[in-house]
Design brief:
Shape: globular
Largest sheet: 10 strands, mixed
Structural class: alpha+beta
Oligomer: single chain
Helix content: 10-25%
Radius of gyration: 21 Å
Number of helices: 7
Distance between the termini: 33 Å
């Protein structure tokens, strides 16, 4: 078994041992709020929420250029030295398990895997093991000392596709900075209800947690956080089978459930989405397509392509996860030819 950081406490350290992490702000941090910069650089620290970081600032645990920070909204300049002291996370034992993982790309610094739908990414209260992280820990046994898997981003349980994993803290930090600074292109494929009359466009909606159900996200007119999704209509069903379309979506911001909420709010809910979708299969003229849409077991969303600058090798990686069989089958029953995939150019 290997040990990994668990959740951190509520900020009242008491007798807990404090750990200090220091970093220097880069160009991607220029002009950003201090609490946003902290979230970016502490992305690998499970439980470092914005509210908790703000408490640490209030408690004098964050210093900028040697001076205690006074406000979460204070702006950070490139070159600023930021130090934050936080309670040492309790060790949590994660079990390495021999679970098959499809690797799309791997070198000594990082790897990209093709996560299947239904696989939970990280252990949680309801999923103690059998997750992608358990599988990665098993694989990491061959990496050597001081190397362990660290997730750079996550996918919902029922979303398939490319997932990036760093093998060291340094590489993890570099990848997170690249994503936060807009240095990554993340493209998804989604099968949605609706004809989607425009060939391409943008969806800019503010997103916030649903006050009635914190597990959901809703589009709001005011408040929330800005978010932007670009989309292109790849194909749409015609004739008797009209009523669904295949979209390619590019995330220009990385909010929780962003694509699912944006498409649903625009009137094009993703087929099979159990949270934000609608049972529009009833309106489909083709009985065969209606059955396929009704029986589809998950949201028809796939993280198809990721392009990012390699932080250690200084070259661009383009990694593509082929469309999974369930989405290929759904498209064929809609009379849509599944798109070809681009070979991994890394």
């Amino acid at each position: 078994m290997l040990r990994s950081p668990g959740g951190i406490d509520d900020g009242s350290a008491g007798g807990a041992t404090l750990v200090t992490r220091t970093f220097r702000a880069d160009r991607g941090d220029a002009g950003s709020r201090l609490d946003h910069v902290l979230r970016r650089h502490l992305a690998d620290l499970h439980g470092a929420s914005r509210a908790r970081l703000q408490r640490w600032i209030d408690q004098g645990r964050v210093r900028v250029n040697g001076h205690p920070a006074s406000k979460p909204a204070a702006r950070v300049a490139p070159g600023d030295e930021v130090a934050v002291a936080f309670p040492e996370p309790p060790a949590r034992t994660l079990r390495a398990q021999s679970i098959p993982v499809r690797v799309l790309y791997e070198d000594e610094h990082l790897l990209a895997v093709d996560k299947p739908a239904g696989l939970v990414v990280h252990p949680s209260f309801g999923h103690r093991d059998g997750t992608l992280m358990n599988a990665l820990l098993w694989r990491a046994a061959a990496w050597g000392r001081d190397r362990r898997p660290s997730l750079v981003h996550r996918l919902d349980k029922h979303t398939s596709g490319v997932l990036l994993v760093a093998k060291s803290r340094t590489v993890h930090a570099g990848l997170v900075r690249a994503m936060a600074a807009g240095g990554a292109a993340k493209d998804y494929l989604a099968v949605v209800y609706g004809r989607v009359p425009t060939a391409h466009g943008r969806i800019a909606l503010r997103l916030a947690r649903d006050p009635l159900d914190r597990r959901r996200v809703i589009a709001v007119a005011t408040g929330g956080r800005e978010s932007l999704t670009l989309y292109e209509r790849v194909a749409r069903s015609r004739g008797e089978r009209a009523g669904v379309a295949l979209l390619r979506c590019r995330l220009m911001s990385g909010r929780l459930h962003q694509i699912r909420v944006h498409l649903a709010a625009t009137g094009w809910p993703i087929v099979g989405d159990p949270v934000y979708g609608e049972p529009r299969w009833k309106a489909l003229a083709s009985a065969d397509l209606a059955a396929a849409a009704r029986e589809f077991p998950r949201q028809a969303l796939h993280a198809w392509r990721l392009q990012i600058e390699h932080p250690a090798l200084g070259r661009t990686l383009e990694i593509v996860a082929p469309l999974p069989d369930d989405m290929v089958g759904l498209l064929r029953r809609a009379g849509i030819d599944p798109p070809g995939t681009v070979a991994d150019s890394s």
